[in-house]
Amino acid sequence: MRVFENKNRCSGCTACMHSCPVKAISMKTDEEGFDYPDIDQKKCINCGTCRKICPFNNKLVRKDLLNAPDVLAAKNKNEETRISSSSGGVFSVLAEHVLSSGRVVYGAAFDNDFIVKHIRISNKNEIIKLKGSKYVQSDLSDVFLQVERDFKQNKQVLFSGTPCQVAGLRAYFNNVIPDKIILVDLVCHGVPSPLVWKEYVNVLQTKMKSKLTSFSFRDKKTGWHNSKLYAEFENHKPLFKNSLLDSFNDIFYKHVALRPSCHSCVFANYERTGDITLADFWGIEKYNPKFDDNKGVSLVLLNTNKGKRIFNAIRDGLVYENRDKRETEQNSLLYKPTSPSNKRDAFWKDFGKHGYEYVAKKYTGYGIIIKMKRIFKKLLGKS
User: Fold this and answer.
1) How far apart are CA 275 and CA 270, in angstroms?
2) Any idea what the Cα angle at residue 89 is, between residues 15 and 179, rounded to 5°?
3) Residue of 232, 192, 3, 210 lying closest to 108 (CA atoms)
4) Whose CB among 101, 184, 210, 345 lies 3.0–4.6 Å from 235's, allowing a Cys bridge?
5) Do 172 and 108 reside in the same domain of the chain?
6) Taking the CB of residue 116, how many other CB atoms lie within 10 A of it?
7) What is the pLDDT at residue 60?
8) Which DSSP letter does residue 276 get?
9) Are residues 141 and 71 in the same domain?
10) How many C-beta neighbours within 10 Å does residue 16 have?
11) Band of pLDDT at residue 375, cut at 50, 70 and 90
12) Does residue 275 sit in the same domain as residue 162?
C-alpha cells in the first residue's frame, strides 16, 4: 500500500497519518527536508483509508461554497497592528474575535529555535506569535487531533494555514466541518524546505556570532509595496537590506527549494478550501489609489455563509470596501500554481554537497555582491 504515487501528489498534510485505523503511518523527512507519510507494511491492513482520505487523490466536494465569493479590500483600524502585519492585519481582528470568549486559534509560529510549527493559542497576548508571513512549510505534528479534541470539548476553533493544510483538516473531518470550526486559507506562493531554512538560520547566526531573536519576512520600514527581510540578534545587531539576509527570499522566489507538490497544487483556484481566504491585495493601488497608503491592504474572500457571518462580526474593527473579483487577477497564485524552476535539481545537488552558503553564493544576489567586492579589491590593488 502507498498513500501517493509520486512526491508531486503529496503536500504532507498529515490527514492520512491521523486517519489510519491501525496507526501504521508516520511522517518521515526526506533528503530535501519535507515530511511524507511512510507506511509500516507489517501493521498495514490494506484498508485503503489513507488513499481515500487524501485530498490530492480525492477532490473535496464543497456544498457550502457560495456561487461566487464576496471580494473585499480591508485594513485593520489599529494602524500599529497593521504595520506589524504582513498585509492589512485582518487575521489579528479575526483571532481577537475568536479568542474573546475562551475559544482557540491555530496558526504557524516560530519556536525558540525558529523552526516553523503550527501551534494552538488561547489568549490575545499570544496572537503576536501567529502574525506575519512564514515562508517555510510548518510542522503540523498532531494539530488535527488537537482541533478534534477542542471540538469535542465544545470549543470554537479558528484554524489558519496554507490551502493544502486546510484541505487536509477538511479531509480528516471527512469534509463535514462542524459550524464551530472556522477555516482560513492563505493564498500561497509555495512552501520552501524547512531544511534549507534551518541551515539559513545557522549561517546567519554564525556570521553574526549571535543567536537570532527576531525575524520578519515582510518588514514594512520601506513600505508595504517594498517590504524586506529583517532580523535581530542577541547582540542587538539588526540585519536589514543585507545580501546574505535577502538570499533566502531569492531562493524562495526562484522556486528552486519549494515542495514538489507546490508546482502542481490542486488548491490554487477560486474553489478555496477555507471559509475565508486572506492575501495581499496587490493591485489595489491601481483600482483605488485612495485606499492604499502603503501600510498594507488585505484581500479578503468570503467563500461561505459561515465566512460572511464571521466577517460581519469583526467588521467594526476594519476599514473595508467591496471590490470586483476581476481585480484579484494580479494575485495569480489565487488561480494557478507556482511554476517550477529548471534549476531545481542542480540546486538540490549543490545544496546536498556544499550546504547553504554555497547555494546562496551561486543562486542569489549574495554571490554577486561577494564577486563585486573581490573585483573592487583587485582594481584598488592595481591602482
Assistant:
1) 12
2) 40
3) 192
4) 210
5) yes
6) 20
7) 79
8) E
9) yes
10) 27
11) low
12) yes
Confidence label for 381 from pLDDT (cuts 50, 70 and 90): low
Number of domains present in the structure of the chain: 3
All three cell numbers of 307, joined, read: 465566512
Closest to 142 (Cα-Cα) out of 17, 20, 37 = 17
Asked if 361 and 292 sit in the same domain, the reply is: no
pLDDT confidence band for 59 (50 / 70 / 90): confident
User: For residue 361, how many other CB atoms are within 10 A of its CB?
Assistant: 20
In this structure, what CATH number is given to the domain that contains residue 36? 3.30.70.20
Q: Which residues have CB under 8 Å from 256's CB, separation 6+?
A: 341, 343, 344, 347, 348, 363
Q: Which residue has the cell 549561517?
A: 203
361 pLDDT band, cuts 50/70/90, is very high
Radius of gyration of the chain (CA): 21
**At 171, is the pLDDT very low, low, confident or very high (cuts 50, 70, 90)?**
very high
Let me know if residue 159 belongs to a domain.
yes
Residue 59 lies in a domain: no
Q: Specify whether 155 is located in the same domain as 114.
A: yes
Whether residues 28 and 143 fall in one domain: no
User: CA–CA separation, 99 vs 339, rounded Å?
Assistant: 38
Model-level pTM greater than 0.90?
yes
Does residue 1 fall inside a structural domain? no
Q: Does residue 349 belong to any structural domain of this protein? A: yes
Which range of residues forms the domain containing residue 285?
65-191+258-334
Q: Which residue shows C-alpha cell 491601481?
A: 286
- Residue 176: CB atoms within 10 A of its CB come to 7
* Grid cell listed for 61: 466536494
Q: Are residues 74 and 138 in the same domain?
A: yes
Say yes or no: 229 and 287 in one domain. Answer: no
Provide the b/e sequence for 46-68 (b: ≥16 CB within 10 Å).
eeebbbebbbbbeeeeeeebeee
292-337 pLDDT, tens digit each: 999 999 999 999 999 999 999 999 999 999 999 999 988 999 999 9
Q: Which residue, chain included where needed, has cell 492563505?
A: 186
